[in-house]
Structure formats: structure tokens, C-alpha cells
Amino acid sequence: MPKVAVLPGDGIGPEVVAQAVRVLREATDGIEFEEALVGGAAYDAVGTPLPAETLDLCRKSDAILLGAVGGPKWDSLEPALRPEVGALLPLRSELNLYANLRPAKVFSALIDTSPVKFGPSGPIDLIVVRELTGGIYFGRPRERSPDGEKAIDTCVYTRTEIRRIAQRGFEIARQRDRRLTVVDKANVLETSRLWREVVAEVARDYEDVELDFMLVDNCAMQLVRDSGQFDVILTENMFGDILSDEAAQVTGSLGMLPSTSLSDSKGTSAFGMYEPAHGSAPDIAGQAVANPLATILSASMMLRYSLEMSAEADRVESAVESALLHGVRSRDLGGTATTADVADAVIRHLRS
Ligand code: NAD
């Protein structure tokens, strides 16, 4: 039986994770869940945002379901004890979670919530595959000159880092519409030119996937002009950080967006940490109004990418679509359904 480490975290994290676990229990024949502390909740209980037992549990599991961490209560702690820095970054680096996947899709029932009018290719339905552990956020030197007049950040990529994320991008394109757009700044950056070289080599093993390259400034424009043209966007760390947020906003609702960070694959599945794209939303925590769908859709990605349960993932996604078509709306979508009401509606559609 697959084992999932459940890390509810802070703010609305425990509220939305509890509902995603209900949906997973309903949609599958059996998953073993074990819960552990993370974030501010862990700091309050044991003095560290990422206890050793939590990391151990993650290592022994097939996947992690995370709510969110952080909140004003812990903002004034020293950086290493703050939930975001002291829990999320070490989880990513200790577990080698180098591939960040952020789908951006607008459900047909919610098209009116998008702030942009969709272009000739129709509504947005894409996935951003972002390299998460290299590039300018990690390169050395990174420093300020002694007189404070100059600062340096360094963008570094190796062939190995590019090859493994490129393979992941092609594999994901194969599970979708088989179109991959590599986004870079190859007219200026040497790292981008290396990306193009390595991606072109990897592409020889994926001739069934249509490949094109786009400069990042053009991609930023195209996401607003005609976001429906993209299937899979593959890009480096900083460009992916920015473009995945832009794509998220095009869908119009933060409470709907799932994400995962994956490590190396074992056969057709990979170990991954699954979490909603939103944070701990302290402003609405404890009010039972959080939208659980981003976490439910993250759980469905977990079924697909880590637990080899694609059919169950399809069923969860269809149940979400049906629940929305039948009108269930949490407060962020203009409705009055509580967090549990939304999950109840999804479960009802799973059963029907
Ligand atoms: P946020 O995503 O928590 O909230 C932004 C806004 O969106 C808020 O108004 C919130 O009420 C709303 N919102 C978010 N999720 C929602 C949901 N599921 N349903 C309905 N409304 C929702 O971002 P923030 O306010 O910038 O950050 C709050 C805290 O979360 C901070 O401490 C931040 O560091 C942390 N954070 C954590 C993660 C993570 O754990 N991966 C990610 C981002 C932010």
C-alpha cells in the first residue's frame, strides 16, 4: 500500500489538507497516511520548523502532501527558524526536488473569473515545468562588494541539470498534447544557449513531441495575448518563478491552483511533494471558508505522478469539474460554500 506523508502546516493548511485526504480516501482503494509537524506549528511544538522525524517520515514515504507554512506569528524569527526558509528550502534540497510543475488551467465553469479575454487558441490549459534547484538563485559568487557599491548574482547551469529537467519536460509533454516550448533568453545569456544545445540533444529521444523555443519576454506577452497556445512550458528557475505566477493569474483564482516538486523518477513515477500554489492565508484561517480545490487537485497530481494511479486522478479531476458545473463555489469564487461543503460536492460526484 503506498504511503503518503501528510504535513498540514499553518493557517489554512490543516483545513484544506484534511479535505484533500477525505477525497483521496474516497477515490482510491487504499493509501496509508501518516501526519507530521512542519512550519510554524512545528516550531511552536518542538522549536524547529522542520523536525528530524518529519524529514525521516518524508524519506520513508512515496509522496508528501503539504498544506502551507508561515504566518505573521513567525515572521520576526531569525531566517533559519522561519517556516518558509527553515522548512520549505531544506525539504526541497534534502529530497532533491528539482522539478517544479505548476499546471494552469481554467475550468469551463469558471471562465468568467479570468481577468483576461482568451485569445484565438481558447482558454488556458498548460503546465509550467520549472527547474527548481539551479540557476541564479543558487549560483556563486553571490555577494555585495565591501563598500556596498556593487552586488553580484551568478547564473550557473550544468549539462546534467539541464538534461534531467529536459527529460522530465518531454515526458510530461508525452502525457499531454505532446507540445513543448522551451523558454529562455538565448539572444543574451550563455546559460540559455547551453539549455538550447542540451534540449536539442534530449529531443532526439522524443521525436513524437513538437519542440519550439521562445524568448522569455515574448512568452510573457504571449501568456496575456493567447495563453491557450501553450501545452508544456519548460524553463529555468527564475523565468519559471515569474511565468508560473503570471500563468496562475490568467486563470483568475489562486484557490484553484495545484503544484508539485518532483525528484528523479523511478520508472514511470517519481517521488514528489504536492501542495497548493497558495500560502497559508492567515487572513481567513479558522473561518472554514478556504477553497480546498487547489489542494484536492494537488492530491490528484500525486495520484498521477507518484502513485501510478492515473485513472483515479482522472476521476478526481472530473469530479472537481462536475462539482463546479453544478455550482459549488467557495467565497473566493463568489459563493458561500464552506471548505467542507466543496469537498462534499467533489465526493458526491466521485460516487455518482
Ligand atoms: P496567500 O496565498 O496565503 O494569500 C493571498 C490571498 O489569497 C489572501 O487574501 C488569501 O486569503 C487568499 N487565498 C489563498 N489561498 C486561498 C484559498 N485556498 N481559498 C481562498 N482564498 C485563498 O499569500 P500571502 O498572504 O502572501 O502569504 C501568507 C503566508 O503564507 C505568508 O507567511 C507566506 O510566507 C506564506 N506562504 C507560504 C507558501 C507555502 O507554504 N508554500 C507559499 C506562499 C506563501
The CATH topology of the largest domain: Isopropylmalate Dehydrogenase
**How big is the Rg?**
20 Å
Poorly predicted runs are none
Q: End-to-end span in angstroms?
A: 26 Å
Bound molecules: nicotinamide-adenine-dinucleotide
User: How many individual helices?
Assistant: 11
The quaternary organization reads as single chain
Number of domains: 2
Write down the overall mean pLDDT: 95
Beta-strand share of residues? 15-25%
> What's the number of extended β-strand segments?
12
- Succession of helices and strands: EHEHHEHEEEEHEHEHEHEEHHH
CATH superfamily of the largest domain: Isopropylmalate Dehydrogenase
What is the name of the CATH class of the largest domain? Alpha Beta
Question: Main sheet, how many strands, which sense, barrel?
Answer: 10 strands, mixed
Shape: globular
Helix content: 40-55%
How are the strands of the largest sheet arranged?
2-1-3-12-11-4-5-10-8-9
Summing up helix and strand content along with how strands pair, one would put the structural category as alpha/beta
| CATH architecture field of the largest domain | 3-Layer(aba) Sandwich
